[in-house]
Structures are given as structure tokens and as C-alpha cells.
Amino acid sequence: xxxxxxxxxxxxxxxxxxxxxxxxxxxxxxxxxxxxxxxxxxxxxxxxxxxxxxxxxxxxxxxxxxxxxxxxxxxxxxxxxxxxxxxxxxxxxxxxxxxxxxxxxxxxxxxxxxxxxxxxxxxxxxxxxxxxxxxxxxxxxxxxxxxxxxxxxxxxxxxxxxxxxxxxxxxxxxxxxxxxxxxxxxxxxxxxxxxxxxxxxxxxxxxxxxxxxxxxxxxxxxxxxxxxxxxxxxxxxxxxxxxxxxxxxxxxxxxxxxxxxxxxxxxxxxxxxxxxxxxxxxxxxxxxxxxxxxxxxxxxxxxxxxxxxxxxxxxxxxxxxxxxxxxxxxxxxxxxxxxxxxxxxxxxxxxxxxxxxxxxxxxxxxxxxxxxxxxxxxxxxxxxxxxxxxxxxxxxxxxxxxxxxxxxxxxxxxxxxxxx
Length: 420
Prior knowledge:
Helix content: over 70%
Mean pLDDT: 88
Strand order of the largest sheet: 1-2
Radius of gyration: 22 Å
Strand content: under 5%
Structural class: mainly alpha
Low-confidence stretches: 415-420
Largest sheet: 2 strands, antiparallel
């Protein structure tokens, strides 16, 4: 692969979570999608010029799962019976194809590069997530000061397509803001931050004393946790909690050491100072977020009622890709309403067949992550402790991030590319 393709992959990973940077041109075209297309074009050119067309087994498996998903959704196309449904299907299919091709190409690309480049690629994604979170803090501070930074900075770039900071409600005369940063929703930001935290924590805990990234990672983890809490995302915190329980299994002894307790304590002191200054405000907000009898909770749980209804009429292939909102509008009269759950979307839009394919895909991912942990153990046994201290923590972090993301998406639906 050329350096051009290398850079396009890194830039695409850096901007992968910048959902707000999109343009409405009949359809919603995101910056991440344009970068992915540019990467795919460069990758295709390099592949065509290469004399070595061997494809690694992992990429072939990824391509096979991609083909299975596409066949399932294309078969489900015949269950669509409205023009609106066809339009939604077309939009969803184009994005899905781009994401699946990008996934397969990235697997081939990374397998052809060095271990150093892999860590650079992971770093590009994490730095992009950190930049996203930093914008969220600036956005929150600007909103508290009465300034809409999205309107000033993003609207000129997107032609007004970008959304503004989320206003959860008000306590007295004070608005309650939930930063969504460069994502489209504070819950999206919360789930993405939880994934990043869970990947980084075991890597940080296993860094050797004196490593140049140790203090940087400690500061980054504390910062990401602060932004996570600022989103007030119950889905994000649920995923973070599930992932933390997973990490307790191999790293429980590390969670009682200063390396973990010091940055966590710094975050707690900072939050305590902020909360004490406005304790009535935060107490009211916290009580509101802990209530389970609100309309928001009912909406997130109520969508599960549609699963048996849809499976009764279209059990095998569901309603068709991206068609839950069409069905919801037909039943309730409400427009622009998503499934609010990845599992609802999976069962309603792809039926039993799509659910079985996805369950098999998850099984494959967990098998590969188990193999990565076994490689880490083998490296330790062979005396390569330094490499083992990167491989096993990354594998455990990926397991925690995957399980955390799946837990988060029980009550919220982030973009399919972040789940699959």
C-alpha cells in the first residue's frame, strides 16, 4: 500500500466519530463517508497495481460476513411496499456497503503493515475521539456563557446541516446542557467515549514504569471520563459499567493501585468541586436522570413491543433495512422516530436470518479476541513480556468495549458502523 493510502486510512479513522460534519444534498453525506470512499478508491488503485493479490484469511471471513449481511438485506427488500420505505432502504444500503467495504479493506491494509502502523492507526482513532471530546467541553462552556459555537463554527461548513448542543431541560432559569460535541447526539458521544475508555484502561494499567505515554494516558483517561459524565448518558454509563466488570476479571489487582486510583481521585475531586458549587442544580438533574417512569424511558422500552408484531408478519427477513421508522410512522403517526435499540433494529429490519448472521459474527469476534489473549500468554511464556503487555491488554480492552457497546445499544442505537 502507498503512503497516500496509509494517510487516508489514518485520516478516516481520526474523523470516524465526526457525525455532525455532514451535508444535506438530497441525502445526508458525512465527512467520514467521503473519506472512506477516498480511502477505498486509493486502496483499489494500490491493490490493482500490486503483484501480490493474496488476501489474509481474516479479511476473507470479514468479506464473507459482509456478503451474508448484504444478501439478507437485499432479500428483505422484497418486503418493502412503499415509496418511502424504498427511499429509506436505498439510503441505508449505500452507507452499509461503504462501511462494510471499508472494514474489509482496512483489515487487508493493516495485515500488510507493521505492528507500529497498527498502533498508529489505533492512536489516530483515539486522538480523533479526544478531539471530539475536547470540542464537547468547548461547546458546553460556550453554551453556559450563552454562545452557540455550533452555529458559529459548523453551520458555515455544513450549510446549516449540523445540530446544536442538546438542551435536556431547565432547573429554574438555568438550561441543562448535554454536550454532543461532533456527534449527532449526547448518547452517541457517551457510547463512543465508553468504548474508547474501555480500550485504553487495560493498556494504561500495563504500561511499564517510566513509559513516555503513561502520564499522557492518565490525563486522557481522566478527561474522557469527565466528558462521559457531562453527557448525562445512561446508555454510555451502562456500557462503561458492563465493560468495567469485564476488566475486573483480569485486572482487579490493578484497580487498587495508585496508577488507577490517582487519576480517578483527581476526577472525583474536580467533580466534587463543581457539584458543590451548584449542588441544588446537579441534585435536580441527577434525580431526573435516575427516574424510570418518564416518557423517555417508556419510549426506549416501548419499541420492544414492535418485535413480536413485525416477526409475526415478516419473521425471516423483517421489514427491510432502515425501515423501522416507516413502520413506526404507519402505526403511530409519528415521524423521524428510530428504533432506539440496536436489537430492535436488528430483529425488525433483518428478521431471524439477520439476527442469526449477526450472532454468528459476534461469536467469531469473541473467538478471535480469545485467540489474541492466547497469543499474549504465549508471548509471556516465550519471554517477550513487553509485547505481551500490549497484546493481552488490547484484547481484553476490545472484549470489554464490545460487550459494553452491546449493552449500551440495548436502549439506544448508535451508528451501525460502531456496533458492527
